[in-house]
């Protein structure tokens, strides 16, 4: 099965590759949780909330710095722009993957169907040419067999 050319080729994840994604996921989850905590503190703000709010702001800044540091580890990762649109719409990225695979399978079926039709056409054409121009057809097949060897 051929993948569309605009998608990155699938890669087998090594332990180090897998761990860098796990580290990124943990960092993003921590950042998200800290942002949620900051929102709770800010929504019920009073004078005693100032110090915890300041701490959460510093924690978020540290999280952003860590994400910026991790960024260099992902320079080889290619993400289709279409996936970002799916995420912006709040859709599940796994559904995007499923849709891409379904489209790829459908396209693969279409291409395989065309290949089969061309094979049948070639066989029919060679048969008809063999009946009309037997000597030329034999020469063609000899040349073709020599070139394919």
From TrEMBL:
A Pfam short name: Med10
Database matches in PANTHER family: MEDIATOR OF RNA POLYMERASE II TRANSCRIPTION SUBUNIT 10
InterPro entries: Mediator_Med10
Assembly behavior: Component of the Mediator complex.
One Gene Ontology cellular component: mediator complex
Subcellular location(s) of the protein: Nucleus
Predominant location category: nucleus
Coiled coil: none
Role description: Component of the Mediator complex, a coactivator involved in the regulated transcription of nearly all RNA polymerase II-dependent genes. Mediator functions as a bridge to convey information from gene-specific regulatory proteins to the basal RNA polymerase II transcription machinery. Mediator is recruited to promoters by direct interactions with regulatory proteins and serves as a scaffold for the assembly of a functional preinitiation complex with RNA polymerase II and the general transcription factors.
Family: Belongs to the Mediator complex subunit 10 family.
One annotated GO molecular function: transcription coregulator activity
Protein's UniProt keywords contain Metal-binding: no
Designated name of the protein: Mediator of RNA polymerase II transcription subunit 10
One of the GO biological process terms: regulation of transcription by RNA polymerase II
Assigned keywords, A-Z: Activator, Nucleus, Transcription, Transcription regulation
